[in-house]
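#onboarding

Welcome to the new folks! Below is a worked example of what a typical request in this channel looks like: someone posts a single protein sequence, and someone else replies with the predicted structure as tokens. Don't worry about understanding the tokens yet, we'll cover that in week two.

Example request:
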Amino acid sequence: MTMQTAPGAVTPEHISIVLPSPRVSDELETLPSSPQPPATAGTGPRRRRVVGPSATIDIGIAVALGAATAVIQPAIALMVLGVTLAWPLLLVVGGHYRHRVLCESRAARLGRVGLTGARALVLLLATTPLITDDRPLALPALVGMLTVSTAAHALLDGRRGKLRVVLSGRPREVREALAELGSSKTHAVVAACLTHASKAAIGVPAHVGLEYCSVVALAHQADTVVVLPGARMAPYALRRLHWALAAMGAELCIGTGLLDVTPGRTRALTTGGLHLVHVATAPLRGPRRIVKDVVERFSAALALVVLLPALAVVCLIIRLDSRGPALYRQTRVGRDGRPFTMLKFRSMSTDADRERTALLNRNEADGVLFKIQRDPRITRVGSWLRRWSVDEVPQLWNVVRGDMALVGPRPALPDEVARYDVDPTRRLVVKPGLTGLWQVSGRSDLSWAESVRLDVQYVDNWSLWLDARILLRTVMAVVAHRGAY
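Example response:
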């Protein structure tokens, strides 16, 4: 069956999907409103854009590189002039000077420059034989230098700093979205349009009435308006807002309300005139999981063989520092709730488990975790082992056995699992890891809620590439001693 879209309708290609993580509350709040004149769709002044200086700098660099090439090889000066003049035009066609949209990464910007360079090279190789019999090497070299210089300028371009964002939705939802976006280095929230008034402070200039979104966006020179799920704007209102924002040169993004779902797991669909967002299931099974298991077991076995002499020395130091075994065995909960014995280098006294009860009133962690930054049970050598995460190395044997993975959620204690609610239980659908998102994002400094969220985010959005990034960040976290105690 072929689906037809009415003229003027917004299709999935026009929709920019943002995946915020709001924790929505239905509490009612009040705040004196700030009335604004209504916006008319598709009319009104345009938001000022500054693209001239960036293009001027790129043209200046191109001219300088072209002049240097022409001086070196005067015989092809006219061809160099053609390449120099064509380069800025190709950048415009490739969308390099198009206004940056929300969530656009540096990789995407550099990718456009690289694609423009590839197009220029293909065009050069195709047209050069029509002009001359030979292919001067200076011309491809010029294209390469232009590509590199433009990419470097794109990275250093301060003008393309933080995007200005207006949030639209319920007051509580807007505040929580502000908290999510607070640490962003790519965009800043400059205003909010609320569904109703609120007593609690929003943190940015707030205006009551979603019908004023386009006016507020223009007043604050916003690049993007994000409509959060709780706004519940009617389809015709969203369409008119899209028209009004497009007329002033701003973008519209629709929040889905999905929690920690990466864009790679989503796609926009249209059926019967209804626009939907499809969310792919979490990759818990399949060939990639088999590859992960085989590679991690082999890598762990190889690491154990290489590190065996060093591990023997660590065992000797632990035994000399305090009485008791060098290895500590503890029951943890693995995949699908199966218990296993996890190995660690002993970093505490042999009576640590019995002493824990007496220290419960000194617990510094929230939720079901138990953490004390200056734990009196830790031995002198144990503090060094923990600081450099050496105490975790014996878990490589658990990886070889298949109880654990190199990368995965935090391995939990049975008494912790007994107090799990729905979200933390999601951790147990995969093997626990020697390292994970929780470790590279703060380790012991994380709250219980943050730890759960990171582990669930890892489970639902897992990929081999994500594992590689976590392993790289783990090395950096260990060297920096972040959250290690």
